[in-house]
Amino acid sequence: SYFIFFSFQQRIEIHKLRQGDNLILGFSIGGGIDQDPAQNPFSEDKTDKGIYVTRVTEGGPAEVAGLQIGDKIMQVNGWDMTMVTHDQARKRLTKRNEEVVRLLVTRQSLQKAVQQSMMS
Amino acid sequence: MSAAMDTESTYSGYSHYSGHSKKAHRQGRDRHKSPRSKDGSRSEKSVTIQTPPAEPLLGNDASRAEEGQDDNWGETTTAITGTSEHSISQEDIARISKDLEDSVGLDCKRYLGLTVAAVLGLLVFLTPIAFILLPQILWRDDLEPCGTVCEGLFISVAFKLLILLIGTWALFFRQPKADIPRVFVFRALLLVLIFLFVFSYWLFYGVRILDSKDTNYQGIVQYAVSLVDALLFIHYLAIVLLELRQLQPMFTVKVVRSTDGESRYYSLGHLSIQRAALVVLENYYKDFTVYNPALLTASKSRAAKHMAGLKVYNVDGPGNNASGQSRAMIAAAARRRDSSHNELYYEEADHERRVKKRRARLVVAVEEAFTHIKRLQAEEQQKAPGEMMDPREAAQAIFPSMARALQKYLRTTRQQQYHSMESILQHLSFCITNNMTPKAFLERYLNPGPTLQYDRDRWFSKQWTLVSEEAVTSGLQDGIVFVLKCLDFSLVVNVKKIPFIKLSEEFIDPKSHKFVLRLQSETSV
Fold first, then answer.
1. Is CATH 3.10.20.30 the classification given to domain A7-117?
2. Residue among B518, B521, B524 minimizing CB distance to A86
3. Residues of A at the B interface (Cβ-Cβ below 8 Å)?
4. Where is the PDZ domain (chain A) (predicted)?
């Protein structure tokens, strides 16, 4: 059998959780056009300066919504996230007047060949 | 001298020494020292034991059969190699005859060249003076009177001749430091040029001035001045051709000694092969460590052992297939699983350890010996006149305490032939005089030094032959190989041209050095 390495897009809707005075989403981001793309462990292309999910807290809103570590965030509520600085990305995710954020993420996935799964 | 010897005998503890026997014995040994030292590694050694009068602490070396008996050393052994005391080996005969015939032939050639050059030089120097004086002598009355300009020219001629004299002395009158096989091409060319030049001037002078008795004295003096000017220019040409052209380095030569592979690199300019050989030899004496035949015996015995264990039997009948036999032997030797590499490894490790141990003992002994001596200051010298010693006596006083350790070390490193007791004592008194530390004293013995450091008898390399496929007066080219042979070893010289270097420049503005941080932040949202 062999593996197919491909990426697909997914829409994820996260409902923010209120903790005291803050609304948290439950994950961490890395990357940005002002950062060093070579040190991003999740990107396939080491010149990719996009925003990536680097950690997902257990039981948090992001995990519940289906966000996974290593996802690349393409859009947040319609705002493009592929060409933003790290700080701009953080601001777009943590707007105080939004309770729900809709993310468009790209995920890479390994899948065993269809042939093999058919035979098993 | 004998008093000093007696002092030494009480200090050393070798109490059976006596001054007289030591001296007589040393003379007897020196007589057949040189042939024996050459033969030491080759002929059979026989050891005879003679009764007491013993010997100098050092020098009884190459003839010992085993190295392991170091402790018995300074006792009563004398060794005689060969069958008679007056034996001379075949090589020595060859060497003596070679010395004789070479010295006669080359000296003649050298002196001939020198006399020709000297005669020519004298002639050339006197020519302008002759040009000026001859009209005065021969037809004085007809000459026009010499005006101011003419007299000014006299001064100019005088000073130019003086400058020419000094320049020629500086450039040419140097002690020849070597005998070379062929004539220097440039020098010969210059001599021929000068000769032709002066000859043509004389010809012109003879025909146009002497015969016709020219009365224009100023013209004659100006003619002489022009000769001197032209000679100065030839002198300039000589400087450029003989000295300046060779200064800029164009070639790198690699010199490898054939017996142990020691190699050095030198930079040379445009020289002829024979002059390059001279430069290499001059540097050989100061850069290469001294040639020590005692160090080569180990590899020779290993090589002998490789082939010794195999014998070839010819079972197919008579027929002398020599090359087939040797090839079979080589193949068999290669296939044989011998452990000689193991032996070499352990032997070398062992030797290293032994050398280091002996070296440590030696350093300690010398340091301790040096603490027994103190230099007296000027004021103190008047106070205790009885105990004062001069450096030689001081050296003899402290020498016995370090003699044994030094002797053992020299034998382990196989240098004992290069240092006699007299030379060690001299070096010791030299070090004491110049306030040297024990380490400075030992520097000469711990590592083998360049050939110049040792006594001339030990050099093994005084007569050299240049072996070359190209003519020795041709210039150096890339890829030339020539060999400098002496009786015991040879130096292989490989010439390489210095590569043509393309150098370009790049300007960096000092303000252009800017840096930025490599960021990688992670923010939780």
1. no
2. B521
3. 24-25, 27-30, 34-36, 39-40, 54-55, 57, 86, 90, 93-94
4. 11-108
